[in-house]
Structure formats: C-alpha cells, structure tokens
Amino acid sequence: MTAPPQFDTLCNFRDLGGWRTPDGRAVARGRLYRSDSLAKLAGDDLARFAALGVRTVIDLRYPWEIAERGRAPEDVTWHNLSIEHRPYAQADIDPDVDPWRYLADRYAEVAEDGVVELRRALEVIAEGEHPLVFHCASGKDRTGLLAALVLALLGVDDEQIAADFARTEQATDRLVDEWRQRNGGATPRWPAFGRAPAELIRLVLAELVAAHGSVRGYVTGRLGVREKTIAALRARLLVDEEKPHDGDGALWQAR
Predict the structure, then answer these.
(1) Which residues, listed in sequence order, are joined to residue 59 by a DSSP beta bridge?
(2) Which of the residues 9, 74, 117, 167 could staple to 40 if both were Cys, CB 3.0 to 4.6 A apart?
(3) Phi/psi of residue 24, each to 5°?
(4) Region at 185 (left for phi over 0; alpha for psi -120 to 50; beta for the rest)
(5) How many Cβ atoms sit within 10 Å of the Cβ of residue 47?
C-alpha cells in the first residue's frame, strides 16, 4: 500500500494501521487515520488529502473552535462530536503541578462527561464509510484518548497504544510554533505544552481498567456500546496479514 503524502499544513497526521494483536492479526492500513485539525488544510494539501479517498471525518472539537477556525473539506460525511465538556487552556497550566497527573485527570473528565459523543464516535468508526479520519485541534489529547479506546478494543496491547500516543512528540515543536503564531509570538506558560509522553496514556488506561475492569468494560458499561458494534469495529479494521508496524516512523507531517 502506498503511504499517504506528507502535508505542508498538518503536523500530526498518521495512519492507525500496522499495530499488532496477540493473535497475530494487525490493524489494517489506509482505513483509519488520526490528525490535528483538518481545518488547516490549504493549497496543495487539499489535493493530497483528496487523494486519500477519505469518506468520513469525525471532528472532536468544540463548536466554537469550528466557528473560529473552520472545518474539514466539504466533500466528506462530517460528524462534530465534541467529547470534551470542560474546556481548559493547556498553555496556562501551572508549571509547578505534576503535568501528566493533571492531564490524566482531564482525560478522566472527558471519559466521564463525553459518554454520548464517545459512544457515537465508536459507532461511526465501526459502521461508517472508510477511509475515516478523526481529529481535534492538535491531534493530541481528545484524539489520543479516542485512538487509545479504538486500539484497545481491537486488541492492541498497552505498550503499542502508548507508542502510538507518544508519536505526537514528533510534532511538539510544530504545535508550539503554531500556538505562538496564534498568540503574537508569546511563549506558553506551561513548559510541557504540546508534549504527549507514553506515561500519560499508560496512566489513563490503568485508571480505566481500575474503575471498569478493562477498557472494553468501560466502553460497554459506561459508554453503552453494544457488543455487535465492537464486533463490527474488529471486522472492519483487523486483517490477517499486514506488515508489522515499525513503531519509529515519522508522522506524515509538515515537510
């Protein structure tokens, strides 16, 4: 399969395919992507994106973010599912707090507050037209939580989920630069702005397991996702033969 093109305007776009499951299967490539905001697409990147044949987009941002910064290209089925209900400014996080504990608590709020939207997102991924992209603003937190849930339901182990999550670290410098451009050249108060270390998502996953017995238990219990939806998700996204994920590849990001 041909890899997607690199983008000039996106810095955190990647295929979720290639991660392995214990039974020797793998997540199919070219069907499910995660990204920073597709509203940034412009110029030649619009054609590059169109070449992927994306049919469905799940936008996890707040409606006010979309109103301010725009949305995805028009020729896709588009769902706005704002999973985060308590906004906060990451750039202003107190530098003296434990950053990963703080963010894990915010992820826990999303997992608790966004049950309707998270359930619908999983249903769309399981039942909607592929290829599919889901994204938020930076492709880091809201997107990272949904990616972790999807990969866990597919049977991908925590270490690979953490490896996927941490690949956003390759985009941190660009995310900081974009924030500075939007804020008149200022520097974020929080020195870890744009970071996405593996330990953060490990903490989130461990706490979901502690509270619900497993990620699947959270999804079927708290979210109310039906078993047939999970079966459909697995049927759509798992394949028997796939080149193993190298785990080290660069993001398809700005050149």
Answers:
(1) 80, 135
(2) 9
(3) 90, 5
(4) left
(5) 10
Q: Which tokens is 207 given?
A: 């706490």
**Of the given ranges (4-8, 154-158, 225-229), which has the lowest mean pLDDT?**
4-8
Q: Per the confidence metrics, is the pTM higher than 0.90?
A: yes
Task: Sort 128 into a burial class: Cβ within 10 Å, 0-12 / 13-18 / 19+.
Answer: middle
- For the chain, what are the domain ranges? 14-237
Tell me phi and psi for residue 172, to 5 degrees: -55, -50
pLDDT tens digits for 111-134? Answer: 999 999 999 999 999 999 999 999
Is the pLDDT at 239 greater than 60? The verdict is yes
Pick among 3.40.980.10, 3.40.50.11030, 2.60.120.200, 3.90.190.10: CATH of 14-237: 3.90.190.10
**Using an 8 Å Cβ cutoff, are 30 and 237 in contact?**
no
pLDDT at 158 over 90: yes
Residue with tokens 């996405």: 196
pLDDT band at residue 72 using 50, 70 and 90 as cut-offs: confident
Please say if the pLDDT value at position 242 is more than 80.
Answer: no
Helices (H), the chain: 44-51, 63-69, 99-113, 115-127, 142-153, 158-166, 172-182, 198-212, 215-217, 227-237
Confidence of residue 74 (pLDDT cuts 50, 70, 90): confident
Give the pairing type, strands 238-239 and 14-15.
unpaired
Provide the token pair at 217. Answer: 């238990």
